[in-house]
C-alpha cells in the first residue's frame, strides 16, 4: 500500500515522462553520438561508427548483427569504440559527414576519417575490418630473435585451382584476402574460350592470389550485387570489398602480369638516383615528393591509389634534390607528379594547395585515375577495352558516312567517337543471335526476380490480377463459341 501511495503523490507529468522513456528505450548498441559530443568523443582513439535511420529497412535488418558486433568487440577489440548516429534525429551531422545512404559505417582514428566500410555486413567481415585498423594503429611489438630463415609460405590458393564461389561462400573467401573473380555464364562463347586460360592463371598464381569464378546462371543475385552486365566480367576485389574491373587483354601473360602487380600493389619509396631508370622502364608512373616529416600524405596516397591495383606504379621520395629538379617550391610539404612516355617532364602535377581539407583523399584518387593512361595509346584488341566500355559487347567499324573508320584520319576517327558516344552511330554485335537472346532472357529473369524480392505484395497482387483476367478471358472465349440460336427448350411430352 505504501508503494501505491507514493505513486499517487507523484506529479502526473513525471509519471507520463517516465513511461515514455521506458517504452522508447533502445537496446545497447554502442555509444550514441550527437552533434554536441561527436567531436570530443571521437578525438581520441579508434571509433567505428554506424550512421543509420530507424525508418530504413536495411538498418533494422542489420540491427541484430550490429548489436552482436558491439558485444563481441568488447572482448576481441577492446580499444575500439563502437557508436551510432541516428540520422533521423541528427540529419545535419550526417549531412556534414557526407552520409547519403543507410546504413553507412566509417572508421575514425583520433578524429580523422580513415574511410568507409564497403564490405559485406557480416560479422566475420566486420571483425576483420576492425582488426586491420587496430593492427595499423597499434605500436609494433619488439622484434623477436631472428629464427632460422625458412621459405615464405602463403595460405591462399594452395592447390592452384579455380575457386567455385557461391552466394554463401563468397564472403568467407573474401575475408581470407583479395580475389581475382570471373563472373560468367555457361552458354557464353567468350566465357568458354577464357575457361582454360583462367585455370592456367590459377596454377601460375598458386600461393599468391585466389583465382575464383561465379556462375551467374546459378547465382544471379550475387552477380546482380556486383553489377555484372556482360560475360565474362573480370573483377579484382580487395579483402575490404573494394572492387576494380579488369578491362585488359585476356591472354595468359596479360592476366598474369595484372594479377601479380595487383596482388603486390604498394607505394614504393625510392632514392633520387633511381628515378631515371624507372622512367625508362615504365610508360606511366606517379612520383610523390614529400618532406621526411610528412608521413600522412604517404598514407593518403596509399589509400587513394587502391583502385589502380599497381598500374601505374606509385613511388615516393623525401629527397630534397627532387624538389629542386622539378622546380617545386621549398615551402611545399609535398607534390604529386605524373611522368609519361619515358619522359622526365611531368605531364601533370598535383600541388599541395590543390588537395587539402576533408576531401583530400577523394581529390587525390580522382587525379590518379584521370592521369593513369599514356599520352597516346595504340588502338589494338587489347587496349580497345580500356578506352571504350565493352560491357554491351558491341563495336563500331564505320563512321557517320557508313565508310570504314580511318585511324590515320583524325577527322574520321574523332567524328566516329563523338557519334558513338552520342548514340548516333550504328553498332555491330560481337555476340551471335543465340547468345544475345540468351543474355536478354537472363537479364529479364534477373530483373523479374529482383522485383519480386523487393516488392513481394505488389508482385502477388499483379499475379492475382493476371489470373483473374485470364479466367474471364477464357470464359468469354468459350461463351463466344456457343451458337446464338442455342436455347434450352422444354420437352414436348
From TrEMBL:
SUPFAM superfamilies given in the database record: Thioredoxin-like
Listed name of the protein: Thioredoxin domain-containing protein
Family designation: Belongs to the protein disulfide isomerase family.
Residues in Thioredoxin domain copies: 14-135, 144-264
Keywords per UniProt: Membrane, Signal, Transmembrane, Transmembrane helix
Signal peptide segment: 1-25
Keyword Transmembrane among UniProt keywords: yes
CDD domains given in the database record: PDI_a_family (cd02961)
Any one biological process term the GO annotation gives: protein folding
Amino acid at each position: 500500500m505504501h508503494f501505491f501511495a507514493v505513486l499517487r503523490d507523484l506529479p502526473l507529468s513525471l509519471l507520463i515522462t517516465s513511461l515514455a522513456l521506458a517504452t522508447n528505450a533502445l537496446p545497447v548498441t554502442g555509444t550514441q553520438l550527437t552533434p554536441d559530443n561527436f567531436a570530443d568523443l571521437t578525438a581520441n582513439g579508434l571509433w567505428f561508427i554506424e550512421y543509420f535511420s530507424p525508418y530504413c529497412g536495411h538498418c533494422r535488418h542489420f540491427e541484430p548483427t550490429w548489436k552482436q558486433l558491439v558485444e563481441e568487440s568488447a572482448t576481441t577489440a577492446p580499444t575500439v569504440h563502437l557508436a551510432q548516429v541516428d540520422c533521423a534525429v541528427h540529419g545535419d551531422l550526417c549531412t556534414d559527414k557526407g552520409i547519403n545512404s543507410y546504413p553507412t559505417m566509417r572508421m575514425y582514428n583520433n578524429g580523422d576519417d580513415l574511410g568507409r566500410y564497403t564490405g559485406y555486413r557480416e560479422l566475420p567481415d566486420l571483425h576483420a575490418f576492425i582488426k586491420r585498423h587496430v593492427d595499423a594503429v597499434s605500436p609494433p611489438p619488439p622484434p623477436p630473435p631472428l629464427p632460422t630463415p625458412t621459405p615464405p609460405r602463403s595460405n591462399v590458393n594452395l592447390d592452384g585451382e579455380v575457386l567455385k564461389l557461391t552466394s554463401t561462400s563468397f564472403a568467407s573467401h573474401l575475408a581470407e584476402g583479395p580475389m581475382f573473380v570471373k563472373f560468367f555464364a555457361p552458354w557464353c562463347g567468350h566465357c568458354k574460350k577464357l575457361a582454360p586460360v583462367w585455370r592456367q592463371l590459377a596454377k601460375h598464381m598458386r600461393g599468391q592470389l585466389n583465382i575464383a569464378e561465379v556462375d551467374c546462371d546459378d547465382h544471379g543475385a550475387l552477380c546482380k550485387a556486383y553489377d555484372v552486365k556482360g560475360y565474362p566480367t573480370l573483377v579484382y576485389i580487395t579483402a575490404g570489398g573494394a572492387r576494380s574491373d579488369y578491362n585488359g587483354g585476356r591472354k595468359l601473360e596479360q592476366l598474369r602480369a595484372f594479377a601479380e602487380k595487383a596482388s603486390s600493389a604498394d607505394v614504393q619509396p625510392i632514392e633520387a638516383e633511381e628515378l631515371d631508370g624507372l622512367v625508362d622502364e615504365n610508360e606511366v608512373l606517379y612520383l610523390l615528393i614529400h618532406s621526411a616529416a610528412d608521413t600522412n600524405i604517404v598514407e593518403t596516397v596509399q589509400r587513394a591509389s587502391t583502385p589502380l591495383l599497381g598500374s601505374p606504379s606509385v613511388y615516393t621520395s623525401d629527397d630534397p634534390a627532387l624538389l629542386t629538379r622539378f622546380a617545386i617550391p621549398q615551402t611545399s610539404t609535398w607534390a604529386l607528379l605524373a611522368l609519361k612516355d619515358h619522359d622526365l617532364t611531368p605531364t601533370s602535377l598535383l600541388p599541395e594547395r590543390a588537395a587539402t581539407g576533408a576531401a583530400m583523399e577523394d581529390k587525390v584518387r580522382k587525379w590518379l585515375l584521370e592521369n593513369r593512361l599514356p599520352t597516346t595509346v595504340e588502338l589494338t584488341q587489347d587496349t580497345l577495352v580500356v578506352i571504350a566500355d565493352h560491357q554491351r559487347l558491341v563495336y563500331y567499324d564505320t563512321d557517320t558516312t557508313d565508310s570504314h573508320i580511318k585511324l590515320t584520319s583524325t577527322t574520321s576517327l574523332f567524328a566516329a567517337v563523338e557519334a558513338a558516344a552520342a548514340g548516333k552511330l550504328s553498332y555491330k554485335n560481337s555476340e551471335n543471335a543465340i547468345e544475345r537472346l540468351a543474355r536478354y532472357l537472363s537479364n529479364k529473369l534477373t530483373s523479374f526476380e529482383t522485383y519480386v524480392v523487393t516488392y513481394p505484395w505488389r508482385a502477388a497482387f499483379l499475379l492475382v490480377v493476371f489470373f483473374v483476367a485470364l479466367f474471364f478471358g477464357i470464359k468469354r472465349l468459350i461463351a463466344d463459341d456457343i451458337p446464338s440460336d442455342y436455347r434450352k427448350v422444354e420437352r414436348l411430352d
